[in-house]
């Protein structure tokens, strides 16, 4: 394989990588926009997280607790 062929394959690979990363980035932007508009998430709350980071501040989201056997493991010897 000659150097020219390797450089050409490298250029095609680089182009495909850039296009796929751009598509992924725009898909992620669309996902954020859609979830903000439908009301599933409020990303302005998360923007304030860096400012309100003490232990006494309000919790952003509460995680529902699940009482199952996986969370309560007993260690036996």
Automatic annotation (TrEMBL):
Its EC number is 1.9.3.1. Coiled coil: none annotated. Keywords: Membrane, Oxidoreductase, Transmembrane, Transmembrane helix. It is an enzyme of class 1 (oxidoreductase). The keyword Endoplasmic reticulum does not apply. The chain crosses the membrane at residues 12-31. GO terms for molecular function: oxidoreductase activity. It comes from the Bacteria. InterPro entries: Cbb3-typ_cyt_oxidase_comp (IPR008621), Cyt_c_oxidase_cbb3_CcoQ (IPR014107). This is Cytochrome c oxidase, Cbb3-type, CcoQ subunit. It comes from Campylobacter geochelonis.
């Amino acid at each position: 394989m000659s150097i020219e062929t390797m450089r050409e394959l490298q250029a095609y690979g680089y182009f495909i990588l850039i296009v796929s990363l751009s598509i992924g980035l725009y898909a992620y932007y669309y996902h954020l926009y859609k979830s903000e508009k439908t009301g599933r998430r409020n990303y302005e709350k998360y923007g304030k997280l860096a400012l309100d980071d003490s232990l006494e501040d309000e919790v952003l989201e509460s995680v529902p607790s699940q009482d199952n056997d996986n969370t309560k493991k007993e260690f036996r010897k």
